[in-house]
Amino acid sequence: MFARRRKPTYWDFSVNCTGSEAHLSSCKLGQILALSNETCAGGMPVVVSCVPGRAFAPTPMTGYRKAFRQEQPLVRLRGGAIVGEGRVEILKNGEWGTICDDNWNLLSATVVCRELGFGSAKEALSGGQLGQGMGPVHMNEVQCSGFEKSITECSLNKDALGCSHEEDAAVRCNVPAMGFEQRLRLRGGRNPFEGRVEVLVERNGSLVWGTVCSEGWRTMEAMVVCRQLGLGFASSAFQ
């Protein structure tokens, strides 16, 4: 109640964006408006309404079917320890390949993150920092305006040759807080990073914690658990 009655404090400047910036902090400052404890013209704070990406859209996909047609993805992230980070790989002529890190920046990384349904990019990584890929290097000297819907629409230098996987580009995206890590827990371990896997599942209208059968349980499945909990890579998978 108190928070609702309290007058909002406004920033001293107006903001002028081109629309392609990775972060609001990259936008240019406009004119000085007023002191931060005074109301700005109209007296209302700005409000935005965002469309969640594929992975974060409500289920069932009501109202999102048009926006997210189920097509074969052209871009994927590999080698990341948590959701929303990894080496950028693109599909071209039926073969997955990487992107060379020449000119790789936050603007191009943000195009990748948005295409995958995350927020803007937190970091644009170069030098194969999140692992070296295999196969061809599909794109070199990538330059995005920031308005592209896919990294495959950005311009590139077709004549630039000789890029090795030591120069593979990667991203770390801003990931919406959707509470995925709260539907999973580890119990009975010697530390918070190990234990019996328990999942929260709806049964008869209420949420109940239960275990997972270990048949077919391998490191690959453990990787998904660790990533969902934000703990990085799996060390071992026990049955």
UniProtKB/TrEMBL annotation:
Key words, A-Z: Disulfide bond
All copies of domain SRCR, residue ranges: 1-51, 75-174, 184-239
Gene3D superfamilies named among the record's database cross-references: SRCR-like domain
SMART domains: SR
Paired cysteines (S-S): C17-C27, C144-C154
Pfam family, any one: SRCR
Superkingdom of origin: Eukaryota
PANTHER family (alphabetical): LYSYL OXIDASE HOMOLOG 2 (PTHR45817:SF1), LYSYL OXIDASE-LIKE-RELATED (PTHR45817)
Protein name: Lysyl oxidase 2B
Originating species: Xenotaenia resolanae
Lineage, opening ranks: Eukaryota, Metazoa, Chordata, Craniata, Vertebrata
